[in-house]
Amino acid sequence: MTATALTHHIARLIEETGPIPLSHYMALALGHPDHGYYMTRDPLGAKGDFITAPEISQMFGELIGLWLAEQWLQQGTPKPFALAELGPGRGTLMSDLLRAIRSVPGMTDAAEVHFVETSPSLRDEQKARVPHATWHERIDTLPQLPLFLVANEFFDALPVTQYQRTERGWCERYVGLEGKRFIPVLAPVPLASDALLPAPMKNAAEGEIAEISPASTAIAEEIASRIASRRGAALFIDYGHPRSAPGDTLQAMKNHAYADPFDAPGTADITTHVDFEMLSRAVETGGAEAHGPVEQGAFLTALGIEGRKEALTRNATLSQRADIAKAAQRLTAPGEMGSLFKVLGITPRGSMLPAGFA
Description:
This protein is an alpha/beta fold and 358 residues long. It has 14 helices and 16 strands. It has helices spanning 5-17, 22-31, 53-56, 58-74, 92-101, 107-110, 120-129, 199-202, 214-230, 276-285, 296-303, 305-313, 318-332, 337-340; strands at 20-21, 81-86, 111-116, 134-136, 147-152, 161-166, 169-178, 181-186, 209-212, 232-241, 251-254, 257-259, 269-271, 274-275, 288-295, 341-348. Helix 4 (58-74) crosses helix 5, helix 9 (214-230) crosses helix 10 (276-285) and helix 12 (305-313) runs antiparallel to helix 13 (318-332).
């Protein structure tokens, strides 16, 4: 195990209290105020650990902006409204989105931009691109206004709870110490009830793992409740699976390659695949309507990425045309982000079917 300040902190915690829940380990690895992964670096781009869709091409943020603009127009152009992003990275998506909605009369003037972001280093990047935004630590401090929101690669980094099916029943997975290594271990006492688990997971075979994210479902329900009561719309875009199913999807990324999530916490991005069925149920519980999920490639194609690509290439150099085509391919191709990433739409109940979800 690579020794870091956070490694020593977590090791001491386990030595003093015993193994800790996986969700606690993830929260510390990603969000410890002094040593957490997102608190200490800009993880994006070629020099970081991964790249997100907004960083690949301006087309992504522009199309998201036009989707939100269509929803704003259909709902009677509410003024003012909160234009919010959860986990906004460097602010690139919002910057591209704002440029796109300038073509919609009155929308820019009515928009109050809000970011939900805990990382000091990323806040600095966001301020450079969207200086007039307002920042929040949590979604519950967003203003009580009509809410038009996007969350791109946000839910995948929220802590999860894992349970493993054993001969004794479902046991929660913890993180313990074996010598100087962090390892997954099982709680000694099984769950008294499997009521927490989605129905498709309950009949899993012995040895299989069920993964849930209470933080994700709570946030999705809160956003849906705001949209149901005050109007608005949202897009959740992430990599994951459309249906709840058993499986261990815990992974880490470092230098654009997979890494051991239990080695050197705080130095790699730890994520899981998003369970879109659970998010959809949370949206419905919150009183709004869930659309999809659909694959990102199909969604962007339906919104007109091919037309936008052609417009960008008209005055581009040969090299720029190749880059634009490559970016569109990466965003939409089934073998790249096109099928792995899914899109879930949220609108008030009774709304027209939104673009991209036919």
